[in-house]
Design a protein that fits this description.
By secondary structure, this protein is α/β, with parallel strands linked by helices. It contains twelve helices and eight strands. β1, α1 and β2 form a beta-alpha-beta unit. The chain binds NADP nicotinamide-adenine-dinucleotide phosphate. The site of NADP nicotinamide-adenine-dinucleotide phosphate has 29 residues, from α1 and α4. One of its GO terms (cellular component) is cytoplasm.
């Protein structure tokens, strides 16, 4: 595969790194504007350029990973003819495939939504829509892939895109809880991470509902039920459901703003 990444910032760089480390591309090139970004790409041992048109012409698979508000200025740097016969994958949040199709005439267009865990090769990436084995292989180089309908990308963005930030907050809350009861901070931090990882493994290995695990731990009149009572009365579960809902609605609104700006 001949692959170009247009915009090698946090996500673009992570994809370049995954592709390079897994030796997936027969040709790989990353683009950027600043010297700092171009040097970062070169330091990976990957060809770097600020010439987007050159990158598009030399590749078959083009990943667009600039910020959505920079999409129009990026397009202006590329000859419309250069997109023909290319497979384009946008990781830009909020810009629909139908909108990209109006602006670029490519062979096929997909959207992918990775998350920041791509930086350690552990993204959980949604790809819309259909199925393309080469595109799947590209995103498997930074973690796991799920092919979904495009209309699920807003909830995906809330749950999987913003999710690492929400989990980081929960981790901090657990750690503060332990520190409050006298545990040294570093010990609390390491053990909370271990406990979350192993609970996640336990849940994914058992075929049962998460509440079965909860009930297994909950001894009558024991420690867990006392904690659960506080979780319930403080509305922690409802708070998390509303957190995802608020993030989901924001994703929809941002998408609408973006569409209006691009089309107007
Ligand atoms: N961060 C996330 O967790 C995440 C998750 C899923 C999807 N996304 C999507 O991924 C995209 C990138 O996000 P990010 O967080 O990686 O942003 P970022 O770190 O700001 O990276 C954007 C990159 O685009 C480059 N760029 C801008 N205009 C360019 C142009 N005309 N030619 C070449 N390069 C250009 C910038 O280059 P310079 O550095 O040289 O200025 C920068 O390196 C966004 O559309 C976002 O919606 C992000």
């Amino acid at each position: 595969m001949r692959i170009a990444i247009l915009g090698s910032g946090k996500i673009g760089y992570a994809i370049l790194k995954g592709l390079k480390e897994n030796d997936i591309a027969e040709y790989l090139i990353g683009t950027g504007r600043s010297e700092a970004t171009l040097n970062k790409i070169k330091n990976l041992g990957v060809e770097a350029t600020s010439d987007n048109n050159y990158a598009v012409r030399n590749a078959d698979y083009i990943i667009i990973s600039v910020k959505p508000q920079h999409f129009m200025s990026l397009i202006k740097t590329i000859d419309p003819e250069s997109w023909k016969e290319k497979t384009v994958i946008s990781v830009m949040a909020g810009i629909k495939i139908s909108t990209i199709k109006k602006l670029i005439e490519a062979r096929e267009i997909y959207r992918a939504m990775p998350n920041i865990n791509a930086l350690i090769g552990k993204s959980t990436t949604a790809i819309a829509e259909g199925r393309n084995e080469s595109v799947d292989k590209i995103f498997k180089s930074i973690g796991s892939t799920y092919w979904i309908q495009e209309d699920l990308l807003d909830v995906w963005t809330a749950l999987i895109g913003s999710g690492p930030a929400f989990v980081a907050e929960l981790v901090d809350a657990f750690v503060l809880g332990a520190v409050n009861c006298g545990m040294p901070r570093e010990l609390a931090y390491n053990t909370v991470l271990d406990m979350i990882k192993s609970t996640s493994d336990m849940l994914s290995k058992s075929n049962s509902h998460p509440l079965d695990l909860r009930d297994n731990v909950t001894t009558p009149a024991g420690t867990t039920i006392k904690g659960l009572l506080v979780m319930e009365s403080e509305g922690i579960k409802a708070g998390i459901i509303k957190t995802i809902e608020a993030s989901y609605k924001r994703s929809i609104d941002l998408g609408k703003d973006m569409q209006n700006n691009l089309i107007s």
